[in-house]
Amino acid sequence: MLPIRLDAPRASETPILALLMVVLTMVFFAQLGLSHRQGTDLVADGALIPAVLTESGGAFLDHSYRLVTAAFLHGGILHFLSNVWVLWLFGRSVEAALGSVRFGVLFLLTAALGNLVHLIVYPESWVPAVGASGAVAGLFGAFLRFYPWSRVLVVVPIVVVPIWFWVRSIWFVLFWFGLQVLQGTFALGDPLSGGGIAWWIHIGGFLAGLGLGKTLARNPPPTRPPDVSTRSSAGPWARRSGKWPWRRGDRGT
Question: Are the C-beta atoms of residues 93 and 10 closer than 8 Å to each other?
Fold first, then answer.
């Protein structure tokens, strides 16, 4: 299921989100312009490679920067686009709740903590892990804290006729997290799974966002359900008319 729209409040200005989007895009296109050797060297120097950090002799402190820099590297166009799209879609609402500075802190911390969980699970892996997935998962966790009863419009990309429908954020996010836990648990039985999808980065980032979201928020928005007594009859693409107890565009700070 691909989320394509939210009815949660979002900030009218998102300077940190915009900055992160620009930086991620610039780094990705810079990667595309590198030769194969240069790209390999960049990943070797900036990606999360667990075995490099777990070597003896203080290697963790020397290479701890990788817990953050890995989030700004991506392994391909689909990897990049999926992370940037979800970052944009959910980030506007999370930045509305946290304010710009705290939103930036949340992004960096959840990226680092998600990568740290991957490091703990696969301490001997030499396979590089890259991508902003840990931070994006952290946004899911924070979003669940602030807007559990908002709605997400999701599309199921069936080949001929795509299906789309609205679903409560709490069920969408918990379903997504359940899949991560299920896949991550199965992956533990495969010694080579450290080179596949980094499920445990997603799990760690989500739990970090769930815990840090409310801690970082100065005035978190109320999480009670909105009044959904009136609904639009214009189909799933129409904006719902439920009233939230806070104004769209408020930052919550």
Answer: yes
